[in-house]
Every structure is written in structure tokens, then in C-alpha cells.
Amino acid sequence: MFDDKAYVASKNESVTTTVLPKSIEYLYSIDTLEQPVELKDAVVVLKRGKYAVVKQIPKGRGIFLFGSVNGLKEGSVYDIKVQEIYDYKGLKEITALEVIKEKGKVALETFYQTLEINRQSEVLRDLIAVYKNKHLIVNGQKIPVYFKNKKLTPKNGSKLKIHYAHLGYYKKLQLVIYSKKDFTVLNDVK
Prior knowledge:
Elements: E1 20-22, H1 24-28, E2 37-48, E3 51-55, E4 62-66, E5 76-88, E6 91-105, E7 122-132, E8 135-138, E9 141-147, E10 159-169, E11 173-177, E12 183-187
Parallel strand pairs: 1-2, 4-6, 9-11
Antiparallel strand pairs: 2-3, 2-5, 3-4, 5-6, 7-8, 7-10, 8-9, 10-11, 10-12
């Protein structure tokens, strides 16, 4: 149908999009979002530069935020609207979000996990490890490690205390170390 008059929207035709509350576990069960979803009580467990990890409950799943972390603070709780998700080489990411409401701060200790929790987007703390050939050896277990800043990579055989590490995924599970403040070299090999 064609008309030569300007279009005027009818007052009784309002467009509403309902944002349904969902869990992080739900985001792992789908490939793409058909419509935005709300994550209530998302706690920023780790934030480094343009990267972050959020969890809703201490023993629940975490999810990686890529490039959409402006204004978020580590230790703060938010209701967020997730607008886009993406799977990058096996790592589930939120790539676009909107903060609906900031809800305060929480203590993060219960949100950190141990190495036995072998799933992506967990944050591990206080590991003692030996760095050898792009792996960390922790309690006899060999884990691939990736230093985001290559200049920070320690010498082979160095003993490290890992203060914070993200259990990320790039074709396989790996620990990701983002900054110098995330680890200390206990003894450097000559």
C-alpha cells in the first residue's frame, strides 16, 4: 500500500519488549540470543581492562565479558541486560550489555573456586605453581597457561604464586593471567 501522506503511528500500537530474567547457565545452553535477557545479581568477580568475569551465585557458573565492561567495578553487584553473546573458540562471552541497576558491593571470597572446578570462566586464587613450557604445574597437575601480556611470561622453571587467574578457554581450558598484579615470582630460574 502506498500513500503520499506522512506516517503517523497509532497511539494504541505500542511496541514493548519484555526482558526475561535468566541465569548464566541459560546462556551456556544457547548459541544466540533471540531477544535480550536480564541477569539479576551479577557479581563482578574479576575485572582487568576490557575483560571481566561475572557470577550470580558463588557455586554457580561464571561468564566472561568481553569489551562491554565500562563502568563495572570488581566486587559490585548489578542487574544487567545481556544484548549479545558469542562463542569465541569455545569461550562463551557476553559482548554487549546494559547495566540496569547497580545494587551494591559484596565480599568476593566465596566466589573464587579451586582448581578442581574444571569449567570455563571461573576465577582461581592463591595457587603455588611452577611455570614450564607454557604450562603451570600445580600439585602435580599440568595446566596450560596464557599470559595476556607476553612480556610478563616468566622463565621456564620459575616458581609462582598466582594471586588471580581466569580459567578461560581457547580450543581447550587454560589459565589466563592478565596483569603483573595477578602473580608473584617466588624464585626465578637463572
